[in-house]
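lol ok so funny story. i was supposed to be doing the assay writeup but got distracted and ended up predicting the structure for this chain instead. priorities right. anyway since i did it might as well share w the group, maybe its usefull for someone
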Amino acid sequence: MSYYTSLTGLKNAQTELNVISHNIANAETNGFKKSNTQFADIISSSIVTDPSLTVGIGSRVSVIAQDFNVGAIEQTGNALDIAIGGEGFFTTVSPKSGQTEYTRNGAFSVDGSGFIKNAQGARLQVFPSVGGVTNTAVHQDAQVAPTNAAGSAYASVTIDQEGMVVASYDDGSNVTLGTVALANFVAPSGLKQVGDSSWKVTGKSGEANFGAPGSGAFGPLNSGSLERSNVDIAEELVDLISAQRYFQANAKAIDTATQISQTVINLRT
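and the output, tada:
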């Protein structure tokens, strides 16, 4: 029994080491959210078992919980680098698959077709409104026209704290493209990680609730800034040492059980 009990500990320690390693590897990934491993004990008992004689048979990973605390905000000076100063996720849609993803990484740029997109090509979603958002159920790709109605060429695009996306043209005119669509969830820890600092909706997270930056629980936007990873290297290194000791202790318990078994076998022979 002691072999299997300690074996659960070894597996858990390996899982924790993997999670910590993943956190450390993404310490410089913009918009990344660290994860924490939580364990639960396993008890072997039945309705006739004396509670005072209940024996534990190890532990298991109960959950690998994502930590959505806001990371440090870094100034970049790029107009299309935007950080959310509070709750919310940017909404993006892949032009190839049509799938909607959510991210805290606000590093955007304009492609050759005028779409505002992230490094993976997913297009930033905006509410098609000018004088305030009235319908959060409708959002569309943010796209800059190469020329305005007067034929002047596109010059630049900016996004303010309220999420208004404004394109400027050579003749000095401005065109509002819409308001950045932010999403929030009842249980963000239930979101599915899909890589590239992005998440998808699951049954555990609940459906997305959309809103404009700076409204309700949604944080305002910080233009010219990016949200860094919320990984604390010092904390992760301490956890790494703890996980290593956890692994070594369980390995030692298996070694001790092996020695006891060997002693019993030698006595019988």
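The radius of gyration is 26 Å. The mean pLDDT is 92.
back to the writeup now i swear
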